[in-house]
């Protein structure tokens, strides 16, 4: 009995020793399996990072369309501003052309009214001419057409056109002493220069 127990005890101890010897292999296998799982996880992370690194074609298309839309809106805004500016310039050119054609009529009214004698000033015809003249000049004023001040002012080539020079000691140097034809401006731009005589 004792021998069997001893033998059985020896067998048990031997089995335990064998188990211990084989344990490192199992541990290694387990560690290898764990390493394999971690490597797989790393590979999956790498794949996900690669996917995130690669841009989605839909996002690229959306971005391209947004850029195209922004550029087209900027081009349209520039076109609108340019068109408004051109329209304003065309309107101003057209208005100046009409004003230039009206000014000789104003000149004739002024010459005709200036030649009326004292006896005829109270006549109905002259009063009618005065009314038409005042209405015409009022319409020009409403259009922002203004006469250029010349007589007694210093000569300014931007507004005046000197056609004669005269030596006049009483008048100052470069002073306008006579106006032959009245000049006009439209919105601060000259439509017609004043035709004047300047003292030296």
From TrEMBL:
<keyword id="KW-0143">Chaperone</keyword>
<protein>
    <recommendedName>
        <fullName>Protein GrpE</fullName>
    </recommendedName>
</protein>
<dbReference type="GO" id="GO:0005737">
    <property type="term" value="C:cytoplasm"/>
</dbReference>
<dbReference type="Pfam" id="PF01025">
    <property type="entry name" value="GrpE"/>
</dbReference>
<dbReference type="GO" id="GO:0051087">
    <property type="term" value="F:protein-folding chaperone binding"/>
</dbReference>
<dbReference type="GO" id="GO:0000774">
    <property type="term" value="F:adenyl-nucleotide exchange factor activity"/>
</dbReference>
<keyword id="KW-0346">Stress response</keyword>
<dbReference type="GO" id="GO:0042803">
    <property type="term" value="F:protein homodimerization activity"/>
</dbReference>
<dbReference type="InterPro" id="IPR013805">
    <property type="entry name" value="GrpE_CC"/>
</dbReference>
<feature type="region of interest" description="Disordered">
    <location>
        <begin position="1"/>
        <end position="61"/>
    </location>
</feature>
<dbReference type="InterPro" id="IPR000740">
    <property type="entry name" value="GrpE"/>
</dbReference>
<keyword id="KW-0963">Cytoplasm</keyword>
<dbReference type="InterPro" id="IPR009012">
    <property type="entry name" value="GrpE_head"/>
</dbReference>
<dbReference type="GO" id="GO:0051082">
    <property type="term" value="F:unfolded protein binding"/>
</dbReference>
<comment type="function">
    <text>Participates actively in the response to hyperosmotic and heat shock by preventing the aggregation of stress-denatured proteins, in association with DnaK and GrpE. It is the nucleotide exchange factor for DnaK and may function as a thermosensor. Unfolded proteins bind initially to DnaJ; upon interaction with the DnaJ-bound protein, DnaK hydrolyzes its bound ATP, resulting in the formation of a stable complex. GrpE releases ADP from DnaK; ATP binding to DnaK triggers the release of the substrate protein, thus completing the reaction cycle.</text>
</comment>
<feature type="compositionally biased region" description="Basic and acidic residues">
    <location>
        <begin position="40"/>
        <end position="61"/>
    </location>
</feature>
<dbReference type="GO" id="GO:0006457">
    <property type="term" value="P:protein folding"/>
</dbReference>
<comment type="subunit">
    <text>Homodimer.</text>
</comment>
<comment type="similarity">
    <text>Belongs to the GrpE family.</text>
</comment>
């Amino acid at each position: 009995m004792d021998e069997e127990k001893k033998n059985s005890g020896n067998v048990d101890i031997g089995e335990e020793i064998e188990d211990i010897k084989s344990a490192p292999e199992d541990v290694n296998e387990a560690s290898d399996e764990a390493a394999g799982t971690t490597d797989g996880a790393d590979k999956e992370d790498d794949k996900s990072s690669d996917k995130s690194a690669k841009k989605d074609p839909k996002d690229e298309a959306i971005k391209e369309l947004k850029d195209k839309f922004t550029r087209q809106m900027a081009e349209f805004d520039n076109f609108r501003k340019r068109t408004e500016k051109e329209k304003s310039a065309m309107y101003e050119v057209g208005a100046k052309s009409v004003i230039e054609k009206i000014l000789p009529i104003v000149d004739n009214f002024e010459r005709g009214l200036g030649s009326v004698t004292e006896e005829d000033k109270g006549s109905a015809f002259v009063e009618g001419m005065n009314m038409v003249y005042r209405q015409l000049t009022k319409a020009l004023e409403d259009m922002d057409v203004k006469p250029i001040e010349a007589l007694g002012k210093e000569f300014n080539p931007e507004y005046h056109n000197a056609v004669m020079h005269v030596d006049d000691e009483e008048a100052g140097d470069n002073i306008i002493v006579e106006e032959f034809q009245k000049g006009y401006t439209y919105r601060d731009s000259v439509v017609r220069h004043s035709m004047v005589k300047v003292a030296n």
